[in-house]
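Researcher: Please predict.
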Amino acid sequence: MDRRKILVAALFVAVTVGLGYLLYFMFFRPTPTEVEIPAGNVNVGAGALPRAITSPPRPIETLVSPAAVLAPSITPPPQLPAEVSSVAHGGSTWIGTLVNKSVSAARLSSNGSDIAYYDKTDNKFYRVDENGNATALSDKTFPNAENISFAPDTNKAIVEFPDGANVFFDFTTQKQVTLPKHWKDFTFSPDSTQIAGKSMGVDPDNRWLFISNPDGSGVQAIEPLGDNESKVDVTWSPNNQVIATSRTGQAMGFDRQQILLIGKNHENFPGLTVEGLGFKSQWSKNGDHLLYSVYNSSSDYKPTLWLVGAQGDNIGAGRKSLAINTWADKCTFSDDATVYCAVPQTMDRGAGFQPDLFGSVPDSFYKIDLSTGLKSLVATPYGSFSAKNPMVSADGKYLTYTNQQTGVLERIQLK
């Protein structure tokens, strides 16, 4: 009798488990996905690049907008709606497609017209001219590149991988060097001959802001980082005086903070008082001013642009609000007195706390005359576009940017 009860109980358990598995398999089992091999599974020796990793191509639908698929061209169609201009005049403006692929780290080349970039679809580096002709900078591939830092001359770059591996590559000589894994957040000097970054030891007492040669030689520790690494932004000024800004100044209340400028020669620069939080900044062409955005209660916690002196005795002088709501990294200097910005067409209260939520909000483009403070609407893109990383050609003819939603490199003709 006891044996029969045991058998019945065992059968009941087996049937229950079987039914449960069947339900899971039919209704709850996750859809299988292809797995990409991360760069961390590839051995990286001194002076060697990670070998190329073959991964399935991404479908084109995920890379470009429907409009770009229909018109991947830098020249406008023969007929445009009457209200749409092919050249920016302050109204609805046609948008050209310079590179119809998902790109990263686009940077204006030293000739003022070509743009260097990383192609996410084939993991290579290219340079594209103003006519849309792209040339590979190297036949080497850099799969799974996470962060890319171009030198100002765009002939060199540092590639950071998800596993912490770092590679310096010279496109002129086609030589590469593997940099220490505990280095991060790189930037190049104005003349492209040095780099700055953060050396992140396990012990907070062994974390430093440093400069070195691009190949990792000649390392100099500049300032200790301790536990404040996340508050330091590595950004080498065009005048070669400052290599980083730090949100570690004296406490000034909720709506104000002091930003420290860190010099490469241990200079004791005055701190900058900024009216708000969420500090993002960008240097003027000659490094004598800093354009920055912050948010505070007076702005309904929307990011607002400011300008302040940032060189020598002029540090902190002439601080003024530009009274326009956008982030500093959506702006670019075309010369020392002129800034172009992508400005979200709508912005809710509290936008400064969550900038990523506004990555799909359409932008309009504004020109700001810094000498007068005059702001003028340059273009409202024909279509729904959100821009990041804008740049203006040296002749002032084109404003190029990366479409924040698709990664495609697009441009507006300014004149």
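Model: The longest strand covers residues 374-381.
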